Amino acid sequence: MSPFQPFSIATPRLILIPTPIAINQFPYRALYASLHANTDFCTMGFGAHFPARNWSDEETRAIIAREIARNWEPYGFGDFAVGLLPGTREMSTRGNDFVVLHGNNTLTPAELENIKWIGYAGIRDATTTSLPPREEGDEPFLPWQVMVEVRYGISPEFWGRGLAKEAAEAVISWAIGERGVRRFIAETEKGNSRSGKVLRELGFRLSGTDYWKEESQAEWEFVVPVEDGQRDMSS
């Protein structure tokens, strides 16, 4: 994989910063840790079996760094830190839902330091991260291009505003155009109607797969339409 080239994604309300950049922002690490210390967030996203806990800054950095090593380094995709679009930016979508900012158009250090962080959204190769190993009798995993997991988490303070959908939609569109992803998968707790609604709005449907082997979870998929080719979203 070629060396990481800094970029960001802007939507009408949000700025998405790849975690290889955001990991160095203490306010983002603090937000990420606070989400996983929030009982409502953990119960909604991960189920009652995932207890909320307080992470130190060192632990938080290590967890984000592990994700970077598993995804950004080998595949060129992964988690994005999600913040509110700075007031200093007037984002032009050119008729699209997002733009990719490169080079001189990326955020300045001062803008980065003043972002109001609200969560994360990203994709990962589920076969090397979240899925349990195959057992005897299981079908082998498909190629990673059709096993890309979508994940997102927004602070409860911002629930109900459509921000999770806005962030995830931008990441999905970027991944189709820039990384050639052909199918996305996801899992939710069966009682998590909020995330299920977001996934349906993104075009996902219940897949009936049993990749995660968890009775409490529903599994979803979104197959990229054949006519969706690469789109130039660069700015």
From TrEMBL:
PROSITE patterns: GNAT. It comes from the Eukaryota. Residues 141-227 form the N-acetyltransferase domain. One of its GO terms (molecular function) is acyltransferase activity, transferring groups other than amino-acyl groups. InterPro entries: Acyl_CoA_acyltransferase, GNAT_dom, N-acetyltransferase. PANTHER family: ACETYLTRANSFERASE, GNAT FAMILY, PUTATIVE (AFU_ORTHOLOGUE AFUA_3G00765)-RELATED-RELATED. This is N-acetyltransferase domain-containing protein. It comes from Aspergillus mulundensis.
